[in-house]
């Protein structure tokens, strides 16, 4: 209890794939040397989390998340972290919440499913892990085609607004290895690949909605809200999500079940109920978690009590003790196994493999994890499905031991309806939020009552479930189509950017939306080519790499631009329209200044710009009547110091007959600029609060460039005093802002 009353240390995870990963790790190491003699900044010393691979996880032991968020004294640290988060270099994530993805043992090329994914901390971590092989040496990525990530994470979320937030979170990573779906995980359908075989996942994460009492350290307001009813109401939904996940898992595959709750009704009771069944004819068992140095959890509970939903002081040990009027609510699966029963023996053997992470032992938040392994043996005869968990006349409990759950869990064909939701606050703690999101939704009521959407649907049209199933045609997942290798628009874009036309096999576009082209990993492509019994909502897939510029003239080929998020991929694949510029030139570009073509040539003369010749009209073009000089259009601008085939800092830009302008959004541009100033920014963190940013001296902090913050003018700049753009509101600066060309 004492531990729960203290703040939760803030923790961060560095993205190995970021172009600043190596620099950022150096700065974290530098900060870690701070000590008490550094006075007010001593708490800025992060500690390396020894159990996180590749030295990427860090924790600020003496600083909690809400302090960074709300204490003005830490505004520069907040801006520093926000900026790094914005360009996907760093994620703020509670330390124990980093464990489930590590328990998945992600391997390159795998297909993974995150059933309950918003706001997306674990999904981002998994996607980053899919890239680890490729980014094994931070900052020096030697990317070859063979090492391009092939795997996929399908990140699923029920609530539409949270699914949008999830999409934003994973999009920051610029990865081709994901798709976001918006479905009720309980009804995530059986999908078939293009060969008619079932598409199963190598790994599944079921980080289910829970009562969130493990997050009391970061969300103290939960103290007043918690009731025993929540755990009881959530148990059934957690169980059906877990069953669905196990069914979607390949034989030999792993599923990680996790909650941020201490409640055994949401933890042990759910895990035990799933262990007692077969899944697609296969048995499942628990396996030990990996060893996390410094972070040992406790085993799962042997026994527990079930409280009265309205009065936590009244509890029962056995289902038979429950008064008749509560028997429907407090069903047998909520209870521990009866002493001496077959189930108790099984549980005794398995429970030690569950792990409870307790705040007073780990200095972190409360968490529960169990790792399931699905049998690799041929299916056994599964027999008749058992009735769902009934109390026998002799008082013992029938949990359907080793029966198959196929029929008793959920209907594959259930259509999923999204639920309306209130606004998001990015700064609010993830796990706690997910609790409040699900409470009160109509769908929660259904799940709590044990009534599924499929049951509702079955009464609708007078047809039986199997009749409706037969009547339905399988539907292709999502609305994505392959870009044909001989598509004229693609061939034109490939020729313009100097890309190999055969790259088309990686590209998709949304049906009816030919103006955006996405790059999709091999496994993501396989997933999108599958069919499902109903139209699945795929909100986003892969990374947008090309976008058509304006409307094309009648008969003329459309012009394309590279997107900021897709640039690293295109550069790795030989994009030829690229120039390299000095740091000071890059800062000017990022500050939103239009750089006149004459200035570009002068900078090239001075050695500040290299590679202009790749923008010049070729002999062929000149013969075809193109005027001599630079060819207008989209291009990549990289830093002169970066080797050309690395994932270094690169900016999408546009050259017109008159000038060169950046095409990153204001937020992206600000974040990229900050990333160039990482060392200076870290130094600035450590100077006295008042002296750090004297008015009008932004450039002394390494900001350089100037320019007016349009986010500030629109009233939504998140960087506050830490913003590198001007927050002045004079007429002069407003007029200057009107002329900036950086895209929003
Ligand atoms: C514990 S949170 C997930 C946190 C997430 N894994 C992360 O690390 O950022 C649970 C999420 O499940 C969502 N959810 C609730 N019921 C669901 C359902 N039936 N199907 C899919 N998602 C659901 C909630 O809206 C919430 O976003």
Quickly list its features.
744 residues; alpha+beta; nine-stranded mixed β-sheet; six-stranded mixed β-sheet; 25 helices; globular; disordered C terminus; binds S-adenosylmethionine
Task: Give your account of this protein's structure.
Among the domains are: 1-92, no CATH class; 577-684, no CATH class. Helix content is 28%, strand content 18%. Strands 5, 6, 7, 8, 9, 11, 14, 15 and 24 form a 9-stranded mixed sheet that branches. The longest helix has 20 residues, at 228-247. The chain is globular and about 90 Å long. The structure holds S-adenosylmethionine. S-adenosylmethionine binds next to helix 5 and helix 11. Pfam families: Methyltr_RsmB-F, Pre-PUA_NSUN2, zf-CCCH_4. Residues 708-730 form the C3H1-type domain.
Quick structural gist:
With 744 residues, the protein is an alpha+beta fold. It is 28% helix and 18% strand.
Shape: globular
* Strand residues, percent: 15-25%
Distance between the termini: 48 Å
| Proportion of residues in helical segments | 25-40%
Overall structural class, as computed from helix and strand content, comes to: alpha+beta
Low-confidence stretches: 137-146, 381-460, 691-706, 729-744
Number of E strands: 32
| Overall pLDDT score | 81
* Main pleated sheet: 9 strands, mixed
H/I helix tally:
25
Rg (CA only): 28 Å
List bound small molecules.
S-adenosylmethionine
InterPro entries: MeTrfase_RsmB-F_NOP2_cat, MeTrfase_RsmB-F_NOP2_dom, Pre-PUA_NSUN2, RCMT, RsmB/NOL1/NOP2-like_CS, SAM-dependent_MTases_sf, Znf-CCCH_4, Znf_CCCH
GO molecular function, one term: zinc ion binding
Keywords: Metal-binding, Methyltransferase, RNA-binding, S-adenosyl-L-methionine, Transferase, Zinc, Zinc-finger
Family: Belongs to the class I-like SAM-binding methyltransferase superfamily. RsmB/NOP family.
């Amino acid at each position: 209890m004492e531990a729960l009353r203290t703040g939760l240390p803030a923790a961060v995870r560095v993205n190995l794939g970021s172009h600043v990963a190596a620099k950022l790790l150096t700065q974290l190491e530098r900060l870690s040397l701070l000590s008490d003699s550094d006075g007010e900044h001593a708490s800025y010393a992060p500690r390396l989390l020894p159990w996180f691979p590749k030295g990427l996880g860090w924790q600020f032991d003496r600083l909690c998340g809400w302090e960074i968020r709300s204490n003005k004294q830490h505004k520069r640290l907040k801006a520093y972290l926000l900026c790094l988060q914005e360009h996907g270099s760093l994620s703020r994530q509670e330390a124990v919440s980093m464990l489930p993805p590590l328990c998945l043992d992600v391997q390159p090329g795998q297909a993974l499913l995150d059933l309950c994914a918003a706001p997306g901390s674990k999904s981002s971590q998994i996607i980053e892990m899919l890239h680890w092989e490729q980014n094994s040496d931070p900052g020096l990525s030697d990317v070859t085609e063979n090492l391009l990530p092939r795997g996929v994470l399908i990140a699923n979320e029920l609530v539409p607004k949270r699914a949008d937030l999830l999409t934003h979170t994973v999009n920051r990573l610029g990865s081709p290895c994901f798709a976001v779906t918006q479905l009720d995980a309980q009804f995530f359908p059986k999908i078939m690949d293009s060969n008619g075989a079932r598409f199963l996942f190598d790994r599944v994460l079921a980080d289910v909605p829970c009562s969130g009492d493990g997050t009391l350290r970061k969300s103290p307001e939960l103290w007043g809200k918690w009731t025993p009813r929540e755990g009881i109401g959530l148990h059934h939904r957690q169980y059906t999500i877990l069953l669905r996940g196990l069914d979607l898992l390949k034989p030999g595959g792993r599923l990680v079940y996790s909650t941020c709750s201490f409640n055994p009704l949401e933890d042990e009771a759910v895990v035990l109920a799933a262990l007692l069944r077969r899944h697609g004819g296969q048995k499942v068992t628990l396996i030990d978690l990996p060893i996390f140095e410094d972070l040992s959890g406790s085993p799962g509970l042997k026994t527990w009590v079930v409280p009265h939903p309205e009065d936590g002081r009244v509890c029962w040990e056995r289902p038979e003790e429950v008064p008749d009027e509560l028997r429907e609510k407090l069903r047998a699966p909520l209870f521990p196994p009866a002493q001496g029963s077959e189930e108790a023996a099984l549980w005794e053997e398995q429970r030690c493999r569950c792990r409870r992470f307790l705040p007073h032992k780990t200095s972190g938040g409360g968490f529960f994890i169990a790792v399931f392994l699905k049998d690799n043996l041929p299916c056994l005869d599964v027999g008749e499905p058992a009735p769902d968990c009934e109390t026998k006349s002799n008082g013992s409990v029938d949990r359907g031991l080793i029966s198959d759950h196929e029929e008793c869990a959920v209907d594959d064909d259930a259509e999923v309806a999204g639920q309306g939701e209130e606004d998001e606050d990015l700064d609010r703690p993830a796990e706690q939020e997910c609790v409040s999101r699900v409470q009160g939704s109509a769908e929660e009521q259904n799940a709590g009552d044990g009534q599924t959407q499929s049951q509702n649907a079955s009464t609708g049209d007078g047809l039986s479930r199997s009749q409706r199933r037969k009547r339905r045609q399988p539907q292709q997942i999502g609305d994505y189509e392959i870009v044909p290798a001989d598509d004229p628009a693609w061939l034109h874009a490939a020729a313009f950017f100097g890309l190999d036309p055969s790259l088309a096999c990686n590209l998709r576009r949304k049906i009816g939306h030919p103006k955006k082209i996405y790059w999709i990993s091999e496994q993501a492509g396989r997933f999108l080519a599958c069919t499902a019994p109903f139209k699945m909502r795929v909100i986003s897939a892969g990374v947008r790499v090309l976008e058509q510029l304006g409307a094309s003239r009648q008969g003329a080929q459309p012009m394309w631009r590279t997107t900021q998020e897709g640039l690293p991929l295109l550069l790795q694949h030989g994009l030829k329209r690229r120039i390299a510029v000095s740091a000071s030139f890059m800062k000017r570009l990022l500050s939103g200044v239009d750089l006149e073509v004459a200035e570009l040539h002068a900078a090239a003369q001075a050695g500040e710009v290299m590679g202009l010749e790749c923008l010049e009209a070729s002999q062929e073009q000149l013969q075809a009547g193109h005027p001599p000089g630079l060819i207008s259009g989209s291009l990549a601008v990289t830093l002169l110091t970066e080797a050309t085939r690395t994932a270094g800092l690169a900016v999408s830009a546009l050259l017109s007959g008159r000038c060169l302008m950046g095409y990153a959004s204001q937020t992206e541009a600000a974040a990229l600029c900050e990333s160039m100033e990482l060392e200076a920014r870290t130094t600035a963190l450590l100077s006295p609060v008042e002296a750090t940013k004297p008015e009008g001296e932004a450039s002394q902090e390494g900001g350089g460039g100037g320019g007016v913050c349009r986010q500030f003018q629109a009233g939504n700049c998140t960087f506050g005093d830490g913003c590198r753009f001007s927050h002045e509101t004079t007429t002069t600066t407003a007029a200057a802002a009107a002329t900036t060309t950086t895209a929003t």
